[in-house]
Amino acid sequence: MELEKEIQRYSKLNGYPIDVYEPVVCSCGCSELQLYSDDDEGGAIALCTECGSEIDIENSKSYMEDPVQNLCGCDNDRLKLGVGKSYYSDSREVRWVYVGCHCGKCNLVGVYVDWKET
Ligand SMILES: [Zn+2]
Ligand SMILES: [Zn+2]
Q1: pTM for the structure as a whole
Q2: For residue 77, which ligand has an atom nearest its CA?
Q3: CB within 5 A of ion ligand 2: which residues?
Q4: Across the 118 residues of the chain, what is the mean pLDDT of every consecutive 10-residue run?
Q5: From start to end of 17-63, where are the E strands?
């Protein structure tokens, strides 16, 4: 899938290529989500546009200090999200997290926020 490829490309350039990728889907089954993130502190949550549930991505919510809503360049805020994770080579500990979006309106994909796990 397009978004997974983009996160793979981005993460390679970043020096910590992803080992796993998973789409973010609400427990209600909806995958059209609004993304709020803090690129400085490294954290992101998603809000389901169907049921309003909040999804705490990689338990990062508590690290966010100044979350902003991420919009596509076309102003669409209902995005399909995917998370890629890079592990330390000797363990299953997460080293780096990447959150990417796919816009169903203009088809743009991109990594919107990424952070190093500390
Ligand atoms: Zn939902
Ligand atoms: Zn768009």
Answers
A1: 0.96
A2: 2
A3: 72, 74, 76, 103, 105-106, 108
A4: 95 98 98 97 98 98 97 97 95 95 97 94
A5: 20-24, 33-38, 43-48, 54-56
